[in-house]
Amino acid sequence: MADPYADIDPPRGPWVWLALGIYLVSFVLPFGTQGETIVSGYQAFGYSFAMLFLGPLIGFTGDRFGWGFLFALAGLPWLANPCFWWCLIAYADDRRRLAATLGGVAIGFGLLGVLFGLIGPQFPAYWVWLMSFAIPLIGLAITAARRGRR
Predict the structure, then answer these.
(1) Is the N or the C terminus of the chain less surrounded, counting Cβ atoms within 10 Å?
(2) DSSP state of 39
(3) Rounded Cα distance, 144 and 26, in Å
(4) What is the pTM assigned to this prediction?
(5) What does 55-93 look like in DSSP terms, one character per residue?
(6) pLDDT confidence of 113, banded at 50, 70, 90?
């Protein structure tokens, strides 16, 4: 017997909006501490962006090449953000393979924060931010399972 739901395309919008909502929540949660003050997710976003793009500029001035290089490496997790944005656009445009690839790349870039020791496990912003990258992949897996495809 043929599957009666085979030609129905499950909506992609809820997964995109859920991922975007969780992503935005990560911006208001605490990310870490800087002295006595708590750094929120949006401040960490800005610091990481600055490290990625300003680190090499600082490093090419005089004998501080090593420091600039390390700053740029510490900013690499920020590259998960454009991968995630592009993943959501591809997912909404029904380009599933591209969305899945970009979601995986976003998670990979995001996990570099753990590798560099920039993440404190007691602050939830990073983990919520990283979880938002997995939501489109979960949506893709559920959509594929409902269609009977891989």
Answers:
(1) N
(2) E
(3) 28
(4) 0.73
(5) HHHHHTSTT-HHHHHHHHHHTGGGGHHHHHHHHHHHHHT
(6) confident
